[in-house]
């Protein structure tokens, strides 16, 4: 009798775990993947618009190089605050507001006429986008158990190559047309900025901050995720000073790997 109980409970427990993990991934990952495609399309739109901008506004390569660099000043500076907002406030709200802000900034780049305006637009775009990627990584940690988290992150980041596959032909199609006396490169910013705004509004209603708030999961599924995530948390957490975090060999090594990886783009 003592042996029969585990035989009955174990299969159901495994079924509950598999069903919950599959349902969570199916609900969140395709949507987050779509958001990241929109993110990269907006970030790289200036590269496709460069020829038209150079022809109409007489921008030099130095102007475009400066515009690309200015973007990352605000982008890097605000990534950690963005991740903290997701952790301490609301992932749903941060992701939604971030998308609406960067979509608006992308569309407003169509109004650029001078190098200074381009620098300002790119700086503000970097600030708007900064919290998205680290915010999503933190968000995934609220939903996926450790053995699923790496796979979820890789599925999310696979949006990067797809965005390049989609971005080139779409940009080429838009750049080849002018409507209402507005040149193609200006339309590129407008058209590629609008989806981020729409998706940001949808994200506010579609995403759920924490498993305990998910009405699309059964009560036992919510309890299973929360209990599994609680198991991975240490009993006591010791805060690390900022200076110590910046000097950490592990952090420096990961930063170096990321830096060298981006050189290949």
Q: What descriptors fit this protein?
A:
265 residues, mainly alpha
Explain this structure.
By secondary structure, this protein is mainly α. The protein is 80% helix and 0% strand. The chain has twelve helices and no strands. The protein is globular, with a radius of gyration of 22 Å.
Summarize the structure.
It contains 12 helices and no strands. It is mainly alpha-helical and 265 residues long.
Helix content: over 70%
Number of strands: 0
Q: What does the overall shape look like? A: globular
Please tally the helical runs, counting DSSP H or I stretches of 4 or more residues: 12
Poorly predicted runs: 1-9
Please outline the helices and strands.
Layout: H1 4-57, H2 61-77, H3 79-88, H4 91-108, H5 115-129, H6 132-141, H7 146-157, H8 159-175, H9 184-206, H10 219-232, H11 242-247, H12 249-263
């Amino acid at each position: 009798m003592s042996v029969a109980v585990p035989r009955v409970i174990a299969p159901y427990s495994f079924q509950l775990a598999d069903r919950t993990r599959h349902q969570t991934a199916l609900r969140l990952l395709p949507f987050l993947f779509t958001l990241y495609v929109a993110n990269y399309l907006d970030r790289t739109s200036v590269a496709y618009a460069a020829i038209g901008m150079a022809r109409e506004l007489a921008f030099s390569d130095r102007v475009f190089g400066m515009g690309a660099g200015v973007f990352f000043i605000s982008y890097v500076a605000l990534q950690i605050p963005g991740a903290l907002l997701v952790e301490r406030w609301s992932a749903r709200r941060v992701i939604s507001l971030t998308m609406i802000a960067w979509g608006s900034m992308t569309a407003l780049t169509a109004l650029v006429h001078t190098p200074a305006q381009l620098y300002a637009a790119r700086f503000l775009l970097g600030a708007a986008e900064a919290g998205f990627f680290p915010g999503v990584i933190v968000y995934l940690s609220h939903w996926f158990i450790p053995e699923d988290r790496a796979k979820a992150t890789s599925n999310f980041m696979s949006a990067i190559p797809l965005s390049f596959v989609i971005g080139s032909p779409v940009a080429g199609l838009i750049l080849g047309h002018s409507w209402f006396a507005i040149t193609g490169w200006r339309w590129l910013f407008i058209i590629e900025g609008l989806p981020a705004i729409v998706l940001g509004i949808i994200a506010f209603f579609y995403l759920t901050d924490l498993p305990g708030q998910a009405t699309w999961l059964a009560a036992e599924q919510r309890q299973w995720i929360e209990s599994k995530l609680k198991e991975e948390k240490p009993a006591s957490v010791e805060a690390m000073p900022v200076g110590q975090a910046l000097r950490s060999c592990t952090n420096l090594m990961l930063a170096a790997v990321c830096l060298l990886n981006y050189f290949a783009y």
